[in-house]
Design goal:
With about 450 residues, the protein is α+β, with helices and mostly antiparallel strands. It has 12 helices and 20 strands. It has 4 domains: about 5-120, Rossmann fold, CATH 3.40.50; about 125-140 and about 220-345, ATP-grasp fold, B domain (D-amino Acid Aminotransferase, Chain A, domain 1), CATH 3.30.470.20; about 145-215, Dna Ligase, domain 1 (2-Layer Sandwich), CATH 3.30.1490; about 355-435, 2-Layer Sandwich (Alpha-Beta Plaits). Strands 12, 13, 14, 15, 16, 17, 18, 19 and 20 form a 9-stranded antiparallel sheet that branches. Strands 3-2-1-4-5 form a 5-stranded parallel sheet, with helices on both faces. The protein starts with a strand and ends with a strand.
Amino acid sequence: MINQNLFIFEFVSGGGYNQCDMPSSLFCEGYAMLRVIVEDFKKLGFKISILLDKRISHLSRYLNSDLIQFVKPKEDFLKKYIDCVRKSTFCFIIAPEFSKHLYKLTQIVKDHKKNLLSIDLKGVQLGTSKLETYNYFITNKVNTPKSYNIPFKAGFIDLDFLLQKFDQLGNSIIIKPEDGAGSELIFHFEDKEQIRLFFKNHKETFDMERSYIVQEFIEGDDLSISIINRTNPKKAGVMDQIILSINTQIVQNLGPKKESIYLGGFTPIENYEELRDRFEKILKNMDLTSFHGFFGIDFIKKVDNSIFFIEINPRLTTSYIGIRNVLDYNPLEILLNQDTSKVKSTKLKPIYFSHFTRLELKYSGNKSFKNIMNEIIPNLMNLVPELVTPPIAFQNSKTSKDLIYSCFISTKAKNLKSSNKRISQILTIFNNFNFSVIK
């Protein structure tokens, strides 16, 4: 693959929101995915080009990319995107599924007849629609929570329908967008009064141009499995499902008043090999032909050890930031079917442990914002190699002491205990530079 031109686009950090005021927390996760995937493709010899939102141009120094184009506020990022696609041989796209962002960007790559290394259109379409995914799980005979499209009445979500489904589904329900990505706009209700009060007081929460589903709530551990589905390098027409790892997901604030917030996770989970072996059997009996490349499946493991499939993420997920730290090979070698000794086996085991998470920080020192960016942040990057995204904030009209900084870290340790010890050390380093963790 030496000297092949590869365009990598991550929607959030790459200018997809360049005309909106966005919290630094949103850029934090997107930039982290961009940075690690650029690093891993670069190790395989690609000549890499990317787009980067001008507001985080100071972070370009940490990206191992051959060409970086900045997307300024008010610019049409799509024109620059199309130009980068035209000049590339290969493309890899990371974008949210909602509003068909991922589908449309993938379609542009296909229209220009470029080599797509991320999931193709059929898989993107299936994973984007929660109802299509639900029907897909049913067809493939795996456990999945009952899910229904919520009709509209007088231009708003039909409350009577929701209350009826609450009675039908049991003692609690989930409401979320039909095309949602991650933990966006996911609400959990445990009784009818919570539902009534929420829709009385928080109608503005929902965009009525989108569709929503009501889903049976499944109690258990929030987990995900990260998979590369590839053509077997020695058997034409045969697909291999390579399980990279199984991850614990940290989700906060799932309730009737606040939408859930995804903060990262741990990988691998306890008893990894046992659960991996179970999944290998399940995946072999599923039709996964629509998913060629890296994708993830979110699932719940109940107390009785039964597994309920929740949804499919038809793209690189945040978990990859941790996964690459627990393996002793580059996962992208598998994606590209490189027949090396380390990736011949389909039964690979993580050998390290990683905690990957977003942190929000407050600065209490006397340095100016400019000095923080130009002096403190480079020092932190040298002292804390686990920093994937350094502390970032957008000034706007706030003073330096009022800003909330977001960063993303990913440990590489022997086990949970040593990972926690290292995180404690990292927090001490932050404190030494007058950064305190607030979330």
